[in-house]
Amino acid sequence: MRKFTSEISEEDFGKKVTLYGWIHEVRDLGGLVFVVLRDREGFAQITLPKKKVKQEVFERAKNVRRESVVKVVGEVKKEERAPNGFEIIPEEFEVLNEADAPLPLDVTEKVPAELDTRLDHRFLDLRKHRVFAIFRVRSEVLNATREFFHERGFIEVNTPKIVSTATEGGTELFPITYFEREAFLNQSPQLYKQTLMAAGFDRVFEIGPIFRAEEHNTVRHLNEATSIDIEVSFTDHNGVMKYLEELIVYIHERVVENCEKYLNWLNVKLEVPEKPFERITYDEALEIVSRKEEIPWGEDFSTPALKVLAEHMQGYYFITDWPTESKPFYAMPYENRKEICKSFDLMKGWLELASGAQRIHKYDLLVERIKAQGLDPESFGFYLEAFRYGMPPHAGWGLGVERLLMAMLDLKNIREAVLFPRDRQRLVP
Ligand code: ATP
Ligand code: AMO
């Protein structure tokens, strides 16, 4: 029977199993050869005593090159000296595909490699259990997210990624040629998720790519990222902040429950955060920051400023009530203090994970805010129309999946959280 190496237990002792995997290591001791077979879930020691296995099997195993793909059929034997307490004495040892040598990257990590080299040969890098573990956790995060929202009556949607307008100020758009016209890769599903509120969907979520032409090279920016977006009708910023903190807690619970092995591979002790997360206003954050960094009121916090703030804030926290001018046009200003708006960022330490807001749902105010930000209401035609014929009050947020993984797994570079990252220098693989 085909098994993953991790599925072999005492019950298999004395029984025959079939394993498929890669050659992690070969140790040739003359009359005895040890082959370490690696698959997605672990390792198995294949032991070949010259006198006990077929000659051709012995020769094949002895000469097989590292990272070749093999099929091994053999009996499982209890062996306390072997890493998992068992070994396989092979009857069959078939090389399904021989790997070339030398390898461009050492999967055993005896020869360490820089991130760039790792990313250049990502398929080999991903064979490392520690690296693979990040994507097991990522898969659990996305699965938990879907369950969380389905249980709460949300509808999963997919909105266009080829679009005609910008939504977020600050970062640039990637232009593309769309037949005879210019178009762009979408920065955020913002306009579409809001439009769906006018369509009466009430609660939507989307997990999809966002594209941002960030020119700078940082450890927390990608040019293609994955965003979890929600939009909810008949609620405000406080309502969607509750969804956000509940989701973060739920994701942690699910990962702790289902990814223990992968967290161990990553050497991460993940703790489930407590609700509610601390909330501080922009003004309060500015007060803390200004003890060390000078940020004029109204501006976003720089990275050094956020690092000052992080010294004072533990775990996940929200920064609320941002200056209206620092947030996109769609954020709802407070009625009694128009210079601040009903918006928030979710932070962990110095890292921003999500931002969101109650949205403006009144047409006139929205047009006014679009103009105030130096944008042309004409280019928001389809979006603005939705506000004229029954747009409910609504709120939402966007959460970066890679940023969340960075925070949960203590990754030092966001590129670690993407299979094939896109940055200023990198378009392949
Ligand atoms: P055996 O009687 O099982 O062949 P051994 O100690 O005589 O064992 P050696 O040929 O001396 O075997 O093995 C060389 C090295 O391999 C030793 O360090 C030994 O501890 C180790 N070794 C031998 N068999 C195993 C095994 N099945 N799993 C892990 N290590 C082993
Ligand atoms: P914002 O622009 O803050 O808000 O983006 C939301 C979240 O997306 C992630 N993110 C990124 N991750 C990696 N690399 C990037 N270049 C990058 N850009 C953004 C971050 C960020 O917090 N429309 C609003 C959301 C809303 O209000 O609903 C928006 O896009 O984790």
UniProtKB/TrEMBL annotation:
InterPro entries: Aa-tRNA-synt_II (IPR004364), aa-tRNA-synth_II (IPR006195), aa-tRNA-synth_II/BPL/LPL (IPR045864), Asp-tRNA_synthase_2 (IPR004523), Asp/Asn-tRNA-synth_IIb (IPR002312), NA-bd_OB-fold (IPR012340), NA-bd_OB_tRNA (IPR004365). Mg(2+) 2 binds at E352, S355. Its cofactor is Mg(2+). PROSITE patterns: AA_TRNA_LIGASE_II. Mg(2+) 3 binds at E352. It is found in: Cytoplasm. Residues 190-193 are annotated as: Aspartate. GO terms for biological process: aspartyl-tRNA aminoacylation. It holds the Pfam family tRNA_anti-codon. GO terms for molecular function: aspartate-tRNA ligase activity; aspartate-tRNA(Asn) ligase activity; ATP binding; magnesium ion binding; RNA binding. Its EC number is 6.1.1.23. It catalyses: tRNA(Asx) + L-aspartate + ATP = L-aspartyl-tRNA(Asx) + AMP + diphosphate. ATP binds at R212, A213, E214, R220, H221, L222, E352, G400, V401, E402, R403. Keywords: Aminoacyl-tRNA synthetase, ATP-binding, Cytoplasm, Ligase, Magnesium, Metal-binding, Nucleotide-binding, Protein biosynthesis. Residues 135-429 form the Aminoacyl-transfer RNA synthetases class-II family profile domain. L-aspartate binds at E168, R212, S355, R359. Binds 3 Mg(2+) cations per subunit. The strongest magnesium site (Mg1) is bound to the beta- and gamma-phosphates of ATP and four water molecules complete its coordination sphere. One of its GO terms (cellular component) is cytosol. Aspartyl-tRNA synthetase with relaxed tRNA specificity since it is able to aspartylate not only its cognate tRNA(Asp) but also tRNA(Asn). Reaction proceeds in two steps: L-aspartate is first activated by ATP to form Asp-AMP and then transferred to the acceptor end of tRNA(Asp/Asn). Belongs to the class-II aminoacyl-tRNA synthetase family. Type 2 subfamily. Homodimer. HAMAP family: Asp_tRNA_synth_type2. This is Aspartate--tRNA(Asp/Asn) ligase. It comes from Ferroglobus placidus (strain DSM 10642 / AEDII12DO). The gene is aspS.
